[in-house]
Amino acid sequence: MPIFSRIRSNRLRGALLLCLFPLALPAAARPAGEVPAGPRTASLTPVLAGEFSLQAGKLGDAAHWYLEAAREGEGDVGLAERATRIAMLADDEASASEALALWAQRDPGALAVRATRASLALRQGDTRLARRELLAVLRTDGAWRYAVLALATGGRDPAAPAKVLGDLVDAGAIPDDLEAWQEFGRLALRMERPELARRMVGEVVKRFPDEPRVALLHATQLNQSGNKDQALALLRGIEPKAATDEELRNALAFAYDALGEPGRAERTLATGEQDVQTWGMRASLLAKQKDDPALLALYRDIAAGAGKPDPDQRLLLGRIAEYLKRYREAVDWYHGVPGGPQRNEARLRAVNALHALGETAQADQEVRAIQGDVLVDDDVRRDAYLLEAELRQRDGHLEAETAVLTRGLAAYPDDGALLYARALAWERGDDIARAEADLRQILVAEPENVAALNALGYTLADRTSRYQEALELIDRARVAEPDNAAIIDSYGWVLYRLGRAQEALVHLRRAWSLNKDPEVAAHVGEVLWTLGRKDEARRFFDEARALDPDNRALQRALEALGA
What we know:
32 helices, globular
């Protein structure tokens, strides 16, 4: 994904990696006769060293120090668990095994221990051990989520978790619970093992034949296996039940859309009671299929009932009018939104519509008015600077764009969103030094800002040769958000740039399973091509092209490889 996506759409929470382990009082400071209770506390030195290593992005060192702390902290379950997870994140299997043994010793029989042991076994290709541990986990009522997580995160070779999942089905281990079977079925679909997916979904259908949500899952599997007509027939069979069940109706519409049938999805939503949310979803689907006549008809139907000044309804009408390029009507709807939180969005959108009308002077006047309005929240005023910068970008004026953001930063010094946006502008202009400077400025104020860490790490990996530095930044982000698809993609990409293509492919495939993003697909394709697997690579390039033919990462990969 472009750097902007990594920045703006991933405003992830920062996680300060502070030492949470108490410092034991010296004996002389304790009340007379008091006996210290509980497990022996680890020496603060290895804990602090581990934290400092984490903050520096040195996961290998962090794994070493946390294992040392876990050895010292006799009886400390949390420390042993943390040591295990950090070692696994660092791909240090020896340290992970030792830390896991300490964790198991201190909390024998814990479900988390057994699931983690299964996950580690999958990484090591030991499917027998993984199967044994997950069978034990699944014998406990309600514990199936541990097994799903272990299978989803374990294994460098996708065949290992797929084999274990098949073994669990053979053993009759999956509980007779609809939600459990649905989750295991979805997991099988993500594994890209068609035979396993067919089998898993078949088992779900056999056990819950009359459940319409199972039919949705079955339709997904059929479509994946190339049987779209059968999938559509299944979905049509659900329509009568969906007409009286709003939740099912929405799920059915989503399923139709996922099968590439936005028209059927919209018609499904058109049945039953209508509200602003339903109208909004229908409008999105009609826009997706570029059915402007139908969207115009919907717009007129909604407008006919808009006599009452409902802020949500008027905001939606403004959006639809703007999409239909009826910009004057859009401005009128936006200006007509009464007070409330919708009013702020309407004011910003009115600026956008005015700019589209070519009334740039009025657009500039209104956006500057928002920036100077002390009665609105600071976030709204800040967003007005971001909007003005975006308008300058659309006009192709990079210098004006950065000037607006610099003016915004004068009003809101060190604001993360403004610095992010300016970093994007610098990167787009190939001024990587300035992009780096803005991202580092964010990290001065928020050292563990995950989005900034990932964005800077990815930028260094993608646009410079400072790969080791990039790896350390991305590793810091991974500690806070180990299951974030964008961060996993960044990690896989920097491994590839370091020449570790086989390792990179494992992580890039996982990122793709979590988020079907065109840049991730381009990354997987490039690594496969480099490994000589060109037919597979072309499939991923085709996936990326279908999602976004103009994606910058895709274009760079195709040009570099001559694909």
